[in-house]
């Protein structure tokens, strides 16, 4: 069974940091581009960051540029999202998603992704 599992979410104070992980089971991530999305209550899902299969190409939403960093360790079959200088507006459920086809993943087109995790909650509050 192909699965993506996110972890690392939690409650953090403004200005704090979290590192999210996206681990794959049942398949290897080597050939997949990975995207991180988030959805806050009452808001549409939005793309946060994405990375190519080899890790050489990344993209970030303007709202997180300079604060978030995406990386991957294919040997561990895991992709990470390091989130620094967190703000209350970063509060959301964060999802990772995977695709091995096309190029629309780079533009955070949700339908371009084939597999999705269940999400991990991030809450930024004092």
In short:
With 126 residues, this protein is an all-beta fold.
**Total number of strands:** 11
**Form type:** globular
Structural category: mainly beta
* Chain-averaged pLDDT: 95
**Low-pLDDT residue intervals, each spanning 5 or more residues:** none
Q: Multimeric state of these chains?
A: single chain
Outline the biggest β-sheet.
7 strands, mixed
Number of helices: 0
Approximately how much helix is present in the residues?
Answer: under 10%
| End-to-end separation | 39 Å
Helix and strand run: EEEEEEEEEEE
Radius of gyration: 13 Å
What features would you describe in this structure?
With 126 residues, the chain is mostly beta strands. It has strands spanning 3-7, 10-12, 18-25, 33-39, 46-51, 58-60, 68-73, 78-83, 92-99, 115-116, 120-124. Strands 2, 4, 5, 6, 9, 10 and 11 form a seven-stranded mixed β-sheet that branches. A four-stranded antiparallel β-sheet has the order 1-3-8-7, with no helix packed on it. A hairpin with a 4-residue loop joins strand 7 (68-73) and strand 8.
What brief labels describe this structure?
single chain, 126 residues, mainly beta, seven-stranded mixed β-sheet, four-stranded antiparallel β-sheet, 47% strand
Write the layout of secondary structure elements.
Layout: E1 3-7, E2 10-12, E3 18-25, E4 33-39, E5 46-51, E6 58-60, E7 68-73, E8 78-83, E9 92-99, E10 115-116, E11 120-124
Parallel strand pairs: 2-11
Antiparallel strand pairs: 1-3, 3-8, 4-5, 4-9, 5-6, 7-8, 9-10, 9-11
């Amino acid at each position: 069974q192909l699965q993506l599992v996110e972890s690392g979410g939690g409650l953090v104070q403004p200005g704090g940091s979290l590192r999210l992980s996206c681990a794959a089971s049942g398949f290897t991530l080597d050939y997949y581009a990975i995207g991180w999305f988030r959805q806050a209550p009452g808001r549409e899902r939005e793309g946060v960051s994405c990375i190519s299969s080899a890790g050489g190409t990344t993209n970030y939403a303007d709202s997180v540029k300079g604060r978030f960093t995406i990386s991957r360790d294919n040997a561990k079959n895991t992709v990470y999202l390091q989130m620094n200088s967190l703000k209350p507006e970063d509060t959301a459920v964060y999802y990772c998603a995977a695709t091995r086809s096309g190029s629309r993943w780079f533009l955070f087109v949700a339908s371009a992704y084939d597999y999705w995790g269940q999400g991990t909650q991030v809450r930024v509050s004092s």
